[in-house]
Amino acid sequence: MSDLDQLTQSLARNLKRWRGERGFTLDALAARSGVSRGMIIQIEQARTNPSVGTTVKLADALGVSITTLLDYEQGPQVRIVPEDQAVRMWWTEGGSHTTLLVGTEARGPLELWSWRLMPGDGSASDAHPPGTVELLHVDAGELTLVVDGVAHAMPAGTSATFESNVPHAYRNEGAETVEMTMAVSIPPVG
């Protein structure tokens, strides 16, 4: 597959995905972006390679970056955030603070979970609906996060985000108890 073919396929897949996540009909996206309904259909069916200007209009209308629309990645994306890269947003001399651990552009229902995995334990999950995103932070121990068959080591203090529309699992392969906090963002129905 040529670079242009790959770009066209990526744009088609990502445009369809983000339009669905935002709950936009073809007509709604056309009205928001100023790009014709017919052009959007051709892009989503990978029958055309739009201009940069058209792609920017679509990204702006969807509220995502052009990079997000053109992302080549075929598989699930996992972003691991080491503890030293978390952003301290507010603090006082008394020791109070807030830290942004990890973020995502997803919208819809949001669930917050507290997990404890004893040594040797694990929990596997089937794929969730497309657009479902999980964010997690390991407070203690070392979690093994498995996304679509690929294992990721996450020591205490590490955060991650990934699209959970593929099989995934959380395992404690160490000797210490794993404690983690997880948020699940589910796309709106409709």
Walkthrough of the structure:
The protein has a five-stranded antiparallel sheet, with no helix packed on it. Helix content is 27%, strand content 33%. β2 (87-91) and β3 form a beta hairpin. The chain has five helices and eleven strands; from the N terminus they run αααααβββββββββββ. The model has no long low-confidence stretch (mean pLDDT 85). The protein has 190 residues and is of the alpha+beta class.
Low-confidence stretches: none
Number of helices: 5
- Basic shape: elongated
Query: Helicity, in percent?
Result: 25-40%
**Rg from Cα:** 19 Å
Tell me how many strands there are: 11
Summarize the structure.
This protein has helices spanning 3-22, 26-33, 37-44, 52-62, 66-70; strands spanning 78-81, 87-91, 97-100, 110-117, 122-125, 133-140, 142-147, 150-155, 159-163, 168-171, 178-185. The chain is an alpha+beta fold and 190 residues long.
SSE blueprint and pairings:
Elements: H1 3-22, H2 26-33, H3 37-44, H4 52-62, H5 66-70, E1 78-81, E2 87-91, E3 97-100, E4 110-117, E5 122-125, E6 133-140, E7 142-147, E8 150-155, E9 159-163, E10 168-171, E11 178-185
Antiparallel strand pairs: 1-9, 2-3, 4-11, 5-10, 6-9, 6-11, 7-8, 7-10
